[in-house]
Design a protein that fits this description.
Helix 3 (33-43) packs antiparallel against helix 4 (48-64) and helix 8 packs parallel to helix 10 (154-166). By secondary structure, this protein is mainly α. The chain has helices at residues 6-13, 18-29, 33-43, 48-64, 68-80, 86-98, 102-115, 120-132, 136-149, 154-166, 170-183, 188-201, 204-219.
Length: 220
């Protein structure tokens, strides 16, 4: 019977010392994900897919903790490793937005939308960024199709109405504010915004009724 050599034992155990693998196991038990990932990625020879999965979990963990700057670094590293997926770019966009990096967020959301034409959340965030940056026409471009596909989304309808209001397209603003209110009738801010739109149109009685309704809801 062949005698197992030390070389064969080392091959079976892998190139990483037993002590390092034991540390990794302890860190995992302690739920120390950050240290575990760093240890694995720096000291072990793991399969590329496994490395990407670990890095993705690390990025998501940092994002959940509100450590957006560190999460951005990890998502960018993940992309450089070839993990180019719509959800990765979307999460990167969210982190950039939280850090006030609007241009980088916009670029990430656009990439997510290019990779998945049905990624509604990416287009919604693009619409919100456009409103924030006073680009209502761009906001309508992103939010309009979403509103047509999902007629029960209060957030989409409301923000589309805000965009039309900024464009002074008051008829469409009223239409979408009313649709939004039909979905969530107890949201006082929607009644208030509708009131301001009516006021801008010179429909003062309608505006007063909207303001009254907003006040009633705020007193409840």
């Amino acid at each position: 019977m062949a005698v197992e050599t030390e070389t064969n034992k080392q091959k079976k155990a892998g190139s990483v010392p037993l002590l390092v693998r034991m540390q990794a196991f302890v860190y995992k038990l302690n739920k120390s994900l950050d240290r575990l990932v760093d240890l694995y990625c720096r000291l072990t020879r793991i399969e590329p897919l496994e490395a990407k999965n670990i890095l993705a979990r690390k990025a998501a963990s940092l994002m959940k903790k509100g450590q957006y700057g560190k999460a951005i670094d990890q998502y960018n590293k993940l992309i450089r490793m070839g993990r180019e997926e719509a959800v990765v770019y979307y999460n990167l966009g969210l982190c950039c937005e939280r850090e006030g990096m609007d241009e980088e967020a916009q670029s990430a959301y656009m990439k997510a939308g290019e990779m998945d034409k049905h990624f509604g959340d990416a287009f919604y965030r693009l619409g919100l960024l456009a409103i924030k940056n006073d680009e209502p026409k761009t906001a309508v471009k992103y939010l309009g199709p979403l509103a047509r596909r999902n007629k029960e989304s209060f957030d989409v309808l409301y923000n589309l109405a805000v965009a039309y209001d900024k464009l002074k397209d008051y008829e469409k603003a009223v239409e979408n504010f009313r649709k939004a209110i039909a979905v969530e009738p107890d949201y006082s801010k929607a009644h208030k915004r509708l009131g301001h739109t009516y006021d801008a149109m010179g429909k003062h009685q309608e505006a007063i009724e909207c303001f009254k309704k907003a006040m009633e809801l705020e007193e409840i």
